[in-house]
Structures are given as C-alpha cells and as structure tokens.
Amino acid sequence: MCANPCESCRTIFSASIAALTRIAHVADSSAGTDSKYRAYKQRLSQAKASERKALEAKLLEQTEAEGVIAADEAEKKWFWQATKQKAE
Asked: Are 37 and 28 in contact (CB under 8 A)?
C-alpha cells in the first residue's frame, strides 16, 4: 500500500485481508486446528495478565511436544512406505 493510501487502495487492502482470513480459516478447518486455536485464545483471554506469560510458555511447550510426536509419526510412516516400495 502506498504511503498516503487512497480510498481504492484501502478497499483493495481490506478485501485482501478479508480473503486471506477466510483462506486461513478454511485451511484451519480442513486441518482440524481451528478448535485448538480457539481453545488457546480462550485460555489466554481467561488468564490474568500476570499469569499470561507463564501460560503462553506452558502452551508453547505442549504444542512443541505435539509437533515432535506428529513429526515422529510422519517419519515412521514415510520410512515404512519407502521400505515397502523398495521391497517391491
């Protein structure tokens, strides 16, 4: 967007952001991650400001652990598929 956006630039920018938001929502819905994100945001909004940082760290740790487990499962699945294809 230009430094002094005209009305048409603002309209295009707003439409682009809205489209990207819809695309992200569809991607989250199809991946099944939208409910996790909503739960995360709800937990953060319910936490007191003083507790928020500790809660974010805890949730980040849980998410990283889930990611490691998912990566291991994907790697095992890929390994066995590759092994099976080599055997054939």
From this structure: yes
